[in-house]
Amino acid sequence: MSLSAEHCRDTSGDRGGGGGFNGALIHQRTLIRGLIIWVTLLTLGLAASISLHFIPKESPAPSKQQGSETTSNNVYPGKKIDLMTFTPNWENTDVELLQWNTVEERFIKGEGQLTVTQGGAYFLYLQVTLDSRKKENHTITVQTQKQNVILKGYINGSNLSSGFLATGIYLDDDDTFNVTCKPKAKIQNSHIETYMGVIKLG
């Protein structure tokens, strides 16, 4: 039994077609692998390029001359504050006129009636603390001879036992001032609870 020439051509044609399809598939896989490798290398290169932008560059060390100029420009010439402080000078009894000890006498002198020896602008601050809480209100007053009342505060014995006052004022030479508490009361004579200070501004 013999095969016809046409049958042989058909059979060989089918084999050739199958071989061409497999070759195209292998070629396509090779191209995909190459593309993946190329994309990977490109990504690594891009990542390395970006990381170079975040590496801090060391600035050159300043010369000695530049360092000395910077130091001299940043130095703030400090100004000495002209301050006088006063501590309580009374017994543990009811008082109305508060007496003071002068820590260092410079531009104000005295005890109960304080005298200004140098006229000028001043900042005065004062804290008064009652020895015990009482129901009645107490009025703390700072009064000068020439300007009358310059500070006034109220201590409500039922709620508060301390009062803080402060003001800026110009005081004339030889002017006097005092601190009073009305009605009279027991006032703490500890320098951390009751105190006064005066700063000379100019």
Domain module tally: 2
Biggest sheet, open or closed, and with what strands and sense?
6 strands, antiparallel
Which structural class do the helices and strands define?
alpha+beta
Q: Work out the helix count.
A: 2
* CATH domain topology of the largest domain: Jelly Rolls
Which ranges are low-confidence, i.e. pLDDT below 50, for 5 or more consecutive residues? 1-17, 64-77
**What value does the Rg take, in angstroms?**
47 Å
**What sort of overall outline do the alpha carbons produce when their principal axes are compared?**
rod-shaped
Account of the protein in words:
By secondary structure, the chain is an alpha+beta fold. The chain folds into two domains: 33 residues; 119 residues, Jelly Rolls (Sandwich), CATH 2.60.120. The chain contains two helices and eleven strands, in the order H-H-E-E-E-E-E-E-E-E-E-E-E. The strands form two sheets. Strands 2, 4, 5, 7, 8 and 10 form a six-stranded antiparallel sheet that branches. A five-stranded antiparallel sheet has the order 3-1-11-6-9, with no helix packed on it. The chain is rod-shaped. The chain starts with a helix and ends with a strand.
